[in-house]
Amino acid sequence: MQRIKGYHAHVYYDASTFERAREVCEEATRLFPVSMGHMHQRPVGPHPDWSCQLSFGPEVVGVVLPWLALYRNGLVVFLHPVTGDELADHRDHAIWMGAVRPLNLAMFQA
C-alpha cells in the first residue's frame, strides 16, 4: 500500500465566483493547518478551470474534507492524496465535491 504524504484540495472557480472561492480558501487556512496556494485566474496543470490549491497533512484530512463538503459554498472541489504517483493520485484516488470536471492527465503519462 502506498503511503499518503499529504493531500491537495483544488477549489475551482471562475470570474463570477472568484471572491467566494477566496473566502472559502482563506477560511480553511484560519481553521486548519492548511497552506493556501495562488488564486490562479487561468487553468493550471491538469485542471480545466481556475483554481486554488489547499495543501494539508494526512492527520487533518478527517476534519478538512467534511468541512469542505459542508462549506464549499457551491464550488467544485477536487481532492486527492499525495503519494508520489501523480497519475494515480489524480485519476484513481480522486474525491470530487460537486461536478466532476475533465482533467488533462497527459502531463503525468510517459
Give a quick summary of the entry.
The protein is an alpha+beta fold and 110 residues long. The protein has helices at residues 18-31, 61-71, 86-91, and strands at residues 6-13, 35-36, 50-56, 77-82, 95-97.
What does this structure look like?
- The chain has 110 residues and is an alpha+beta fold.
- The protein has a domain at 16-85: DOPA-like domains (Alpha-Beta Plaits, 2-Layer Sandwich).
- The chain is built from 3 helices and 5 strands, in the order βαββαβαβ.
- The protein has helices at 18-31, 61-71, 86-91, and strands at 6-13, 35-36, 50-56, 77-82, 95-97.
- A 5-stranded antiparallel β-sheet has the order 2-3-1-4-5.
- The longest helix is centred in the N-terminal third of the chain and has 14 residues, at 18-31.
> What is the CATH C level class of the domain at 16-85, in words?
Alpha Beta
Mean pLDDT: 95
Number of strands: 5
Unreliable stretches, pLDDT < 50, 5 or more residues? none
Shape: globular
Name given to the CATH homologous superfamily of the domain at 16-85 = DOPA-like domains
Percent helix among the residues? 25-40%
Biggest sheet: strand arrangement: 2-3-1-4-5
Cα separation of the termini: 22 Å
H-E order? EHEEHEHE
Count of helix runs = 3
Structural class: alpha+beta
Largest sheet: 5 strands, antiparallel
Q: Gyration radius, to the nearest Å?
A: 13 Å
- Beta strand %: 15-25%
CATH topology of the domain at 16-85: Alpha-Beta Plaits
CATH architecture of the domain at 16-85: 2-Layer Sandwich
